[in-house]
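Supplementary Text 2. Reproducibility record for the structural model of the 297-residue chain.

All settings were left at their defaults, and a single model was retained for analysis rather than an ensemble. We include the record here because the model underlies the residue-level annotations in Supplementary Table 4.
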Amino acid sequence: MEAEGRRVTLLKLGVHVSIAGHIYNAVDRAKDLECNTMQIFSRNPRQRRKTELSLEDIVLFKQKVSAAKINPVIIHIPYVLNLASASKSFYKVTVREFISDLIEADKLGVRYLVTHMGSFKGGTEIGGLKRVTNALNKIIKETVGVKTIVLLENTAGSGSWLGYNFAQIKFVFEGLNSPQRTGVCLDTAHAWAAGYKIDYRKGVDSLVEEIDREIGVERLMAVHLNDTLEDFNSRRDRHFAIGEGKIGRRGLKAILCHPKLKNLPFILETPKLDENDDLKNLKTARKLYKDGILKKN
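Retained model, structure tokens:
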């Protein structure tokens, strides 16, 4: 992309797309939106695992991804799973299904599998963190040879949800036997709700510095780029259109153009109230990035 004689670095930008019909249909939807990265659920996110993908679906998915030059592809783990669950029976179910989901993601050629750390409801925060660590060690041990990297996503911190600061993620990482198979996905709306004031450049700098100090910025591998209508430090998770919420254009531009973030894949998880919403939000994000990069140059 050229503008006024100066080159704008290629932005890795995509959305969370539906797999309705067949999983490979998601690639066509992403391509129609001119995405060069994308995120999907590989199955119903609010149900236990019922079936496995067919070999035909897997082959067609990989062929379409290659042809569309979408890279990386990211899968979000189903919401129903809980790595921090205080219920012994459901904890076992979570670990078992997570292993199956990770193996399936690898078969699809997916680079990252994003997960929330979970809720410690019915237990203690430290107990929940230890259960997340133990679960990931079990999952990694049972998936030797799998190349897909598990990314822990920060949360808004509502209720008993873990992952609202990077010290908690550090705790988990320090207890892993194979930490190289894990990384972090930053969600901007969650960060704002958890008390990171990222509506201006210095606030974004402060967030990046904390990530680097606690876990190493090189372990940050993807960004969920979302605005929000929720107040700062509200601990409420509600996404909104790019540039139209409390983080706003200034904050999101600072995130998109930050020297330690700008080369990461950015995924929009913004509301889809209209068939044109994804196009509108992608257009806004691209403009913010282009304006920010050109201004620096």
